[in-house]
Amino acid sequence: MSDVTPFVVLSGILFTIGCVGVLTRRNAIVVFMCVELMLNASNLALVAFAKQHGNLDGQIAAFFVMVVAAAEVVIGLAIIMTIFRTRRSASVDDASLLKY
Amino acid sequence: MYAFHEGGGIPVVDPTSADGVFSLLWLVIALPLAGAAVLLIGGKYTDRWGHLLGTALPIGSFAISLAMFISLLGRDDNDRQVVQELYTWFQTGHLDVGMDLLYDPLSALFLLLITGVGSLIHVYSIGYMAHDPRRRRFFAYLNLFVAAMLMLVLSENYLGLFLGWEGVGLASYLLIGFWQHKPSAAAAAKKAFVINRVGDMGLSLSIMLFFITFGSTSFTVISAGAGEASQTTMTILGLLLLLGACGKSAQFPLQAWLLDAMEGPTPVSALIHAATMVTAGVYLIVRSNFVFDLAPDAQTVVVIVAVISLLWGAWIGCAKDDIKKALAGSTMSQIGYMMLGAGLGTAGYAFAIFHLLTHGFFKANMFLGAGSVMHGMDDDVDMRHYGALRKMMPVTFLTFAMGYLAIIGFPGFSGFWSKDKIIETALAENWLVGLCALLGAGITGFYMTRMMLMTFFTDKRWEKDVHPHESPSVMTVPLIVLAALSVLGGVMIAGDWIVDFLAPVTGVAPHEDPPLPALAITVIAVCVVAVGVALAWFLIGKREVPREAPQDVSWVTKAGREEVYGNQINDTLVVNPGRELTTALLITDKYVVDGVFTGGPVALGGFAGFARRVQNGFVRTYALSILGGALLVALALLAVNLA
Can you state which reaction this protein catalyses (chain A) (predicted)? Predict the structure, then answer.
C-alpha cells in the first residue's frame, strides 16, 4: 500500500487545466488537445486508485479510455479537417449555425 | 259505438274496426303519397304527364272519401267511429304506437274538405302553373301536402297526428319557397318554418305529457281516462295544445308568418294558407275536446287568443293594398272566429267546424279568384293598380262576388249561417266576447267591400302595357264550383244537421238561451255588417283611389300596413335579444372557454420560446453546461455518501 496522493493531485491539476482549456480556447485543435488532457488525467486517476486498491479494475478501465480516445481522435480530427476546408477557420465559435 | 263520461258530457272515443268500404281508408292517404313519390323520384321523365297524375290521385281520394261518407251516413248514430289498424309503427318500453286511422264524423268532414277543395285547387293549378318550368315539382309538393294533411286528420293517436302536422309544415315550407330564386320567398319560407317550430314545441311537449299522464297517445285511451287526470295537468295540456294550434293556425302571438307566406304561388295560398293547413289548429282543439272540456282555464285562454287574433287580422285586412295579404289578414281573422267557437266548448265545437268548412269554400274561392286576377294582370298584386275589372273578367268577378257575400255574412250565404252561430254562442257565453265578434264582423264587411271595390269597381288604374283578360276554363271551372259551395254551404246547418252529426265527437251541449232572441242577434249582426259595407262605400267607392298609397294617413292605417307591428314586436322581444344572446355566447366561447383551453399550451409555447435560447450553437456553452451538470452529480454523490 503506497501513498497515491501526489498522483491524484497531479490528475486533478491536469483535469482542471484541460477543463479551463476547453472552456476558454477557440481553436478547435487546442480544444481537442485539452479534451485529450482531461482523458489522460482521468486515466492517471484510474491507475492511481487501482494501485491503492491493489487490483486491476482501474487499469483495465484506463485501457478502455485509451481505446475510446484513439477512436475519438480519428473521427474528431477528420471533422476538424472538414470544417477547416470549408470555412478556412478552425474556431469553434464560428461553427455555431446549429442553434434555435 | 260512442259513450259519454258519467256526469259530464265528454264523449269517449270507442271505435269499431273497419270493414266494407271503410277498409279503403288507408288508400285515401296512400294515393296522394304515391303521387308525390312518383313525381319526385320519376323526375323529368314525368314532366309531360306529372300534373295530370298529381290531379287524378286526389280526385281518387275524394271519390273514396265520398263513398265512405255516404256509407257513414247510412250507419246508426252510435256506430259512426271506425278505426283501421294498419301496423305497429313502433314499440319501445311502455310506448306502443300503432299506425291506426280513425274515421269518425269529424275526420269525415275534413276528408271531404281536403280532398274536395284540394282536387279543385289541383285542377286550377294546371292552368295557373302552365308556364312554370317546375310545374311537375309543384304538383309533387301539393300531393305531399294533401297526404300529410290527410294523415293529420285521420290518425288515431297524437303521434300520428304529429307526423301529419310536421308533414304539412314541410310541404308549406317547400311551397312558400317554391319560387326559390326570389330571396323574399326563401326568407318567407324560413320565417314560416321557424315560427312554426315554436308551436310544434308546444304540441310535442303536450304529446310527452299525454304519454306521462295516460301512458299512451291514442285518442281512445286518453278520452277514456281523461276524468282521472288532475285539472292542473289538463290545463297545462290545454295550453300546450293551444300553443301548437297558434303556430299552425297563425293565431296571436305566432301570427307573423302568415302574411309573408303569401310569397308562394296563389293555389298554395288557397289550399294551405286558407282552406286546410292553417285550420289544423282548430281541428287539434276540437279533436282534443276531452282535454279542453276539463280545463276551463285553458278554454278561457283560447277565447282570449281567438278574440285578439280575429280583431288583429281584420285590422291588417283593412290596410293592406296587396290583395293576397289583405286576404291573408282576413284568413287570420276568420280562423280567430273558428278558435273562438272552439274555445267556447261543447256549445261551439260544431260551429267552429261549420265555419271552418264554409270558410274553406269561400276563402279558397276568393284566393283562387285573386290568383285569376293576378293571372290577367301580369302577376301584379297591388289593388291600387286594379279597378273596373268586372267587365274584363266576368266569371272571376261573379265567383269572387259569391265568396265576398259569403264572408261578410250576407243573409242566405254560407258564411252568414256559420259566423252568425259563432257570434250567437259567444254572446250567450260572455257579452264582451260577443261584442268583439260582432265588431269583427263589421270590420270584415269593411275590408272585404274595400277589396271588392278596389279590384272590380272604381276607375281603371292599370299599367299601360297590361291587358286584363279572363282566365282559361281550367281555372274558372273550379272557381264556379267553389262559388256554388260558398253560396250553398249553409245547407249543412239545416235542421242542426252538422251539430247532430258531430255530436259523437264533440258531445251534446246543454241548451243555453242567449241574452237576446237569436233572430235579434242575427238582425244586429247584419246591421253591423251593413255599417261596415256602407263605410267602405263612402270611403273608397265614392272617392278616387290613388295609384300610389298615400303616406299622410292616420296611425290606424299605418299600424295596419305594418301588420299591427307584429314583426317589430317579435324583433324586440325575441329576435334581437336572441341575437344579442348568441353574440354574447360567441364572445364568451371565444375569449373565456377557448382561453381556458388554449391558455395552457400558449403559456407553454411562450416558455419554450424563451427556453430554446439556451441552444445557442456555441460548443463552449454546451461544454460549460456539461461541466455544471457533472459537478452537480458529483456534489450530489458526495452529499449522499457523506450523509
Answer: a quinone + NADH + 5 H(+)(in) = a quinol + NAD(+) + 4 H(+)(out)
In a domain, A64, yes or no: yes
Residue A39: domain span = 5-87
Asked if pLDDT for residue B9 goes beyond 70, the answer is no
Sign of the CA dihedral B397, B398, B401, B402?
negative
Query: What are phi and psi for residue B218, nearest 5 degrees?
Result: -80, 140
Whole-number pLDDT of residue B4: 55
Cβ–Cβ contact A93 with B under 8 A: yes
Instruction: List the grid coordinates of B552.
Output: 299622410
Task: Choose from B619, B624, B631 for mutation: most chain A CBs within 10 A.
Answer: B619
The verdict on residue A98 lying in a domain is no
Is residue A43 a contact partner of residue A62, using CB atoms and an 8 Å limit? yes
Q: In a 3-state reduction of DSSP, which class is residue B604?
A: helix
Q: Which of B581, B566, B419 is nearest to B486 (CA)?
A: B419
B617 → closest Cβ in A24, A26, A97: A97
**Shortest Cα distance, chain A CAs vs residue B618, angstroms:** 5
Which of B143, B169, B154, B142 shows the shortest CA–CA distance to B109?
Answer: B154
User: Residue B311: pLDDT above 60?
Assistant: yes
Q: What are phi and psi of A91, to 5 degrees?
A: -75, 130
**Is A9 within the bounds of a domain?**
yes
Place of cell 267552429: B352
Q: What is d(CA B477, CA A61) in angstroms, rounded to the nearest whole number?
A: 116
> How confident is the model at residue B337, as a pLDDT?
93
Q: Are A23 and B617 inside 8 Å of each other by CB? A: no
How many domains is chain A partitioned into structurally? Answer: 1
Query: How far apart, in whole angstroms, are the C-alpha atoms of residue B309 and residue B378?
Result: 33
Residue B615 is nearest to which of A19, A95, A100, comparing CB atoms?
A: A100
Q: Which of A92, A98, A100 sits opposite B620 (nearest CB)?
A: A92
Pairwise CA distance, residues B153 & B528, whole Å: 36
pTM of the model: 0.80
CATH of the domain at A65: 1.10.287.3510
Tens of pLDDT, residue by residue over B111-163, are 999 999 999 999 999 999 888 888 999 999 999 999 999 999 999 999 999 99
Digit-coded pLDDT (tens) for A45-73:
999 999 998 889 999 999 999 999 999 99
Query: Do residue B627 and residue A99 have CB atoms under 8 angstroms apart?
Result: no
Pairing of strands B11-12, B16-17: unpaired
pLDDT range class, residue B10, cuts 50, 70, 90: low
Q: Could you give the CA distance from residue B355 to residue B359 in angstroms, rounded to a whole number?
A: 6
| Cross-chain residue pair A96–B617, CB shorter than 8 Å | yes
Is A96 a member of any domain? no
Alpha carbon separation from B546 to A98, B388, B391, B416, B517 (Å, rounded)? 87, 14, 21, 32, 44
Give the number of other Cβ atoms within 10 Å of residue B91's Cβ: 10
Percent above pLDDT 70 for chain B = 98
Say whether B87 sits in a helix, a strand or coil: strand
Q: Are B612 and A92 in contact (CB < 8 Å)?
A: no
Q: What is the pLDDT of residues B221-280, one digit of tens each?
A: 888 888 888 889 999 999 999 999 999 999 988 888 999 899 889 999 999 888 899 999
**B464 — contact with chain A (CB < 8 Å)?**
no
